[in-house]
Amino acid sequence: MTQHPTSPNPSDDAPLVRSSVDRAIATITLDSPHNRNALSARLRTELARALSDAMADEDVRGVVLTGSGPVFCAGADLKEIGAALQGAPVEPAPELPEIFEQIMGAPKPVIAVLNGAARAGGIGLVAAADIALAPKSATFAFTEVRIGVVPAIISVPVSARMHSRQLSRYFLTGELFDASAAAKAGLVTQAVPDREMDHAVDAVLQGLRGSAPSALSRTKELLGELAGGAQAAPDRRTEAFTRMGELSAEFFAGQDAAEGRAAFFEKRPPRWAR
């Protein structure tokens, strides 16, 4: 995928999400490489709008979700969260459950095309997508436990994808794993040699472009009905997201989370590291 040029300090009015449409496929690009495409309030707002626009466009058959720079998405914007907990104003924006539900409940297939690493909430975007292609150089980690919080909200889409043994391991340890391990665990559809990513993406998009829009939409709905993850069942997602949102908020406001953020920014081990 062609990447947008990066800039270390984007202007306040520069979009953080870019969209284009080519041959019935909308490409939505997270374009905030200065903070590794972190899920800030403004990025979430622009992403939600881009997803809505793509779903409302009758010419769009499917959506590619990708990123600019070396990282697909680093997860939550920890600086913004820390500031908000100190009383700083944060612009109203869709929360992650709304974004995940937009993708999981969308009437058109969403393809995550990773341009690099994914962490924490960024992995939630990967799991929410219908198909996920990752270059073999990409890495993954559920880093929440290492900064004193719980991977609560993302557990809804992730538990519907990953096999339970690997889910337990990577949730509990926060350790790094590669794209091949992610594919074996069910998190991504395919780990692709980096130089072959364009070919792999084209193969998927050719299939979407050759499919009837109404059949695609109904087939995606059917897949949702067949989902193996109990939390991800359409009639339980709202309840699950509500419960997980409460759990996530509880831990993000706790002392361990404050210590985890401080250790992250000070580039030191948190106090519980041994």
TrEMBL record:
The keyword Lyase applies. This is Methylglutaconyl-CoA hydratase. It is an enzyme of class 4 (lyase). Gene3D superfamilies: 2-enoyl-CoA Hydratase, Chain A, domain 1, Lyase 2-enoyl-coa Hydratase, Chain A, domain 2. The keyword Hydrolase does not apply. Its EC number is 4.2.1.18. It comes from the Bacteria. Pfam families: ECH_1. Belongs to the enoyl-CoA hydratase/isomerase family. GO terms for molecular function: methylglutaconyl-CoA hydratase activity. Keywords: Lyase.
